[in-house]
Amino acid sequence: MQFPCLTYTVCWRCHQALPDAISCLAPGGRLAVISFHSLEDRLVKHAFLRAAGKPTPAEEALTRGPHAAEQLDALEARAVGSVVTRKPVVPGEEEIKANPRSRSAKLRVFQRAGGVLGDSGAGMRRGGSSRQRRRQQAELQPVPVELV
Question: Is 116 exposed, middle or buried (0-12, 13-18, 19+ CB in 10 A)?
């Protein structure tokens, strides 16, 4: 049972090191991480989402309801860049044939805001995100009023 213990230890170290690696990036710099295990990929995905100012699946419930706009603004305020790869890049059939161990590999890329041309990374995002729609819906929801 030493192998699972080693895997979880490496995952925990990765979880601690990713925010530090993101903070060390130069403006416009990119961080690419290859994970070979679903637990590792989950940690990378959540670290990149947090750094991009987007809710992780655990924080998704906070982005609904009467205080949704405030929560979304707080998430956006802590953004330091954007996720370049919306979904992980996985190996193709040729790569898997040539290297069977690559079948579990997933590549994710994060870019720090402020490139050479002053690009904040916003150009990589799709227009009309679900976050914007939720914020607009939250602002339109009626506020409960007590009748006296």
Answer: exposed
Query: Which has the closest alpha carbon to 70: 8, 140, 139, 9?
Result: 139
- Give 62: exposed, middle or buried? Use CB within 10 Å, 0-12, 13-18, 19+: middle
The answer to whether the beta carbons of residues 115 and 27 sit under 8 Å apart is: yes
pTM for the whole thing?
0.67
Task: Give, as one character, the DSSP assignment of residue 106.
Answer: E
Of 35, 57, 54, give the one whose Cα is nearest residue 44.
Answer: 35
Tokens at 106, concatenated: 């997933």
pLDDT digits (tens, 9 = 90+) for 36-84: 888 888 889 989 998 988 888 877 777 777 777 887 888 888 888 999 9
- Kindly write down the DSSP assignment for every residue of 12-46, as one continuous string: HHHHHHHHHHHHHPPTT-EEEEEESSHHHHHHHHH
